[in-house]
């Protein structure tokens, strides 16, 4: 069944191919801005009153309750717990009474697996330094830029190169949780499903939908029979209403609007989109089912604001290669076989993928 689904995916997606010419319009699609810096600073201020009897525990599933966290620390005499959810990240502070219990909790729980997630358990001072090292608050980064490995303000991943050194790459802004939460909440109202997509692990087949040249990051569809059914349902529904849907009026074309537009390229199909920005008579669109961005004429965008068309979650999610980069060759539609081996150190919704075979 899985092999049939993989083969069946190729035909409906043959026309969903993004032209890779980096034109002036394409460059406009990189003008994303990070929001929520003030919220991040507020959370850091709240932790200042915590003392050495408190333990930081990170990489928690967002659905975990404070009672479950207390049960997790039951052997270390927990007194109280405070759970924090920030975007797609969930962490907590647990009062275990004294410094001895702090040390015991760290030694026994750090790097253990809970519900498929590797827990991060540290004392408070260490957790603060780690949070500061991954902040990207007021800096706008070109997503394809190689960055200084010593910079503390950039969300990045390091990859080994042939001479033994390491090169760091900035996480594409389209993939960062702050951007995704804003977009997904606007489109789908509820983003709880994303925690489920992050639980993918082990051997998988991925259909590559969009890549970043000479970067390890890519958007892909996890090939399962369920994904194939959802894709067919979605595109069948869109094909029925495409001709009926009205084009957006000038006053309706605005940032944060969910809509539909033809996928760039010859014979592009109509796809679900979100308006990232408006630039004079053009709009920057994020195609939610391919992970691609494009700049198109504002007059070519149609309305798609009925919730029934947004009941199916996005068909793709972000991945990063465990080793190597994608290079410049065309990868769209390529099926990769391999395994999910963990999470990105700064963005836990981005899964690390190790290629074992390429079809």
Structure description:
By secondary structure, the protein is α+β, with helices and mostly antiparallel strands. Helices cover 24% and strands 30% of the residues. The protein has helices at 2-10, 24-28, 37-46, 66-72, 99-109, 124-133, 177-188, 193-197, 225-241; strands at 54-58, 80-86, 89-95, 113-114, 117-118, 120-123, 146-147, 156-160, 166-170, 202-211, 217-222, 258-262, 270-279, 282-287, 292-297, 302-303, 317-321, 335-343, 351-358. A five-stranded mixed beta barrel has the order 10-11-17-19-18. A hairpin with a 2-residue loop joins strand 2 and strand 3 (89-95). The longest helix has 17 residues, at 225-241.
Ordered list of secondary-structure elements with their pairings:
Elements (H helix, E strand, L loop, with lengths): L1 H9 L13 H5 L8 H10 L7 E5 L7 H7 L7 E7 L2 E7 L3 H11 L3 E2 L2 E2 L1 E4 H10 L12 E2 L8 E5 L5 E5 L6 H12 L4 H5 L4 E10 L5 E6 L2 H17 L16 E5 L7 E10 L2 E6 L4 E6 L4 E2 L13 E5 L13 E9 L7 E8 L1
Parallel strand pairs: 17-19
Antiparallel strand pairs: 1-3, 1-6, 2-3, 4-5, 7-9, 8-9, 10-11, 10-18, 11-17, 12-13, 12-16, 13-14, 14-15, 18-19
